[in-house]
Design brief:
- By secondary structure, the chain is an alpha/beta fold.
- It has 15 helices and 15 strands.
- It is globular.
Amino acid sequence: YSREGRFDEALYILSEARLLCTPWSTRALVGRIELETDKARAGMGRRDEARKAYNAVRSALPVYDSTTNEEDYYGDLRRNLVEADLSLATLDGPIAGNDAVEALNRACDILPDWSLDVDAPHLPLHKPQIVYFCGEKVSFRWDVSMAGPTLRRLPGEQELSESLAPVMADLGRPGRPIVESEMISLINALGGTPAGWNEQENLVVVPDGVLHAVPWAALRLETGDADWLDRGSILVSEAPARDSDSPAASRTSGRLLALGANNDSRADAAGLSILRHAEREAREIHSLWPAGEADLFVGTDGGERLRSRDLSAYDVIHVASHAKIYSGSSKRASLLLGDDERLPLDAGEIRDFDLNARLVFLSCCEAADGSTINAGRARAELARSFLYAGAQTVVAPSLMIDDEAARLMAGRFYDHWLSGASATDALRAAQRSLRDEDPRWAHPFYWAFYLALSSPRR
């Protein structure tokens, strides 16, 4: 009834439902009924009443506890509350300045992954930055620039997904031409290129829901003559970033751990192609470090080294191997390192590592997998696992990658990174060189799906 605009009837039925609740009814159920009641009030134009009620629903949410199944009960309620609150805030159009910041702060209070609890919470947000929230009916984008923050509406998640799907089909297959009209449609749906972004600045992107699959580097500028890759460096963050957050990792003194495994029998059993260059890649990266400052393990030895969990002494960890992504459960995503029967090493085990690494480079197919099972969840599980374990920045591809192109990408990345570039600048330089210097690798399939990911909490 609410969706049909029949708010009086909706309120009557919702009030009846609320009367059926008892003191033993779960807070998630009560909160859901109250949220739908408040949305109906907002639809009737009773904004102040709805806003006050939204605050009451937010106050009733429990403190998030990652060790419980809290998200199973309250995850959707949290997201629906954010969508309702932002819809009310933007009912008359985009908002800017303090209103936009306050809307973001309210969302951060509700969404566990968006915590802005940093050492200096009074500091302003990083500029330039775009933050997305994908809602069921309507999505939102914050643009944070020198001109100030703004918040505006975008299409709902299903419509965004429909805009993204044909572009991904074009970009995800070597040699397949990109349909310009489909790319333009996606860019418009995403809100366009951020204004005021130049080559001297890292653009921070906080994706959400289906937008974790977007190959940001391959998006076209509105002029149509260049890619976002040509505008500047891009850092994908799992939460809004403040100016106090560390920049993407740059070269410091420290040890390298280089792991490589071609995974002959295990890859065949998993239905994956046998790698030809992974162990060679690990050896080449190892050779870039001075003697005595790097450790190299290939084949089964690589998995054994990771399982030892004694990794805190490494400043850089490079893994060249297969990754296995299970679309049904992101936590089952795993690294295939050698043919030991105890392997693979799954995402849950990786989260328990104790890392101090400034950089982890995962030269593994789909290690930054951008797919989602539910909106805002189950994304980039392998890459995020290393972030949760303590890594500052993770560089990884989100799709299947060519074995030889992966080796070239890694080598070019380290050429720039070891010369003093940040991880984002080094990745951009490697992508541009792979795209521009050899026609074999000109298609975005080979370079667009590498991401530099970071967590503001690290």
